[in-house]
Amino acid sequence: MSNNALLQVRNLKLYFRTNNGPVQAVDDLSFDLHKGQTLAIVGESGCGKTSLTRALLRLLPRNVHTYSGQIILDGVDVMQYSDEQFRKEVRWVKMATVPQASMNSLNPVIRIEDQIAEPLLAHDRTMTKKQAAKRAAEVFSIVGLPLDFLQRYPFELSGGMRQRATIAMALVTNPEVVILDEPSSALDLLTQANLMNVLKKIKHDFDTTYILITHDIGTASELADEIAVMYAGQMVENCSAKYFYTDAHHPYSRKLMASVPTLREDKELEFIPGQPPSLINPPTGCRFAARCEKKFGKCSEEPNTKKLPNGQTVKCWLYEDLEGKLNA
Ligand SMILES: Nc1ncnc2c1ncn2[C@@H]1O[C@H](COP(=O)(O)OP(=O)(O)O)[C@@H](O)[C@H]1O
Ligand SMILES: [Mg+2]
Description:
Blueprint: E1 7-16, E2 23-33, E3 38-42, H1 49-57, E4 64-73, E5 76-77, H2 83-89, E6 95-98, H3 112-123, H4 129-142, H5 159-171, E7 177-181, H6 189-206, E8 209-214, H7 217-223, E9 226-231, E10 234-240, H8 241-247, H9 251-258, H10 260-264, E11 306-307, E12 313-314
Parallel strand pairs: 3-8, 3-9, 6-7, 7-8
Antiparallel strand pairs: 1-2, 1-4, 4-5, 9-10, 10-12, 11-12
Helix pairs in contact: 3-4, 3-5, 4-5
The structure holds adenosine-5'-diphosphate and magnesium ion (MG).
């Protein structure tokens, strides 16, 4: 991992308190993200992807059990910030999100323009309503929406248009990192393809840095430079998107890849036998072992994350002999 990355996440943990014990939703995640790059985070439902978004943006529910690690943005560990400083300087300002199912979370009784302008007015007291409206119009055209729709209410827009409006909302403050949580999963295939094209164009024109969260490797590979695979709250592999199909090493990554055609129809992964483990008291060894065809004796212990010579990382005992350990 190089240190000129825009975002460096180290040992990030987010556990939730429940009556049955803590849920280890994000368990010791580390990764780098460079300016202008897209990191896709892929994995089955329930593996902690949305919790990762919450951890990065400190959008925490009341039942937090553990929240720790480092989130180094532009060289500063923003985990050290107070809640107030984080709200003023980080969330929506430097890192914004298009939350999961956000197209259905627009306020039905507020015109689109006012909803898009809201993050600007909330974060910059010197901004006038007129300036905010001007910027709202700018981002509206960036996402390819006709300007007259700014004056409309959410119900007057199609699902795809509402999704673009929520992307406009995330872009309005010109954040350094945009986190997209399953941006296309509720859309039909054609609308999904259009949306991916919009995201690609924005990336190209503005050098936007994205974290793209998806359960669909097909979607991921369209936009991503890097693909990180999450399993049961942990990152099990991080690989260049270009080489993912040929070079992904982790048995779970390989299983995910085999599942692309099914995923394109937006189904959950049905054909990897078994289920991910409960994140309350997960197995102490490799969390994928129970479903892994390649498991052997060592897998009852937790594998280290190995860094391969090409920079790829993999958390699996099969690669123990490859040189260089990430955490060394
Ligand atoms: N507030 C919460 N309290 C308890 N458990 C939670 C809470 N939020 C999420 N979880 C659990 O954390 C795990 C990861 O969930 P989530 O991050 O939504 O996964 P994904 O987005 O990959 O589908 C799941 O087991 C989920 O039930
Ligand atoms: Mg989710």
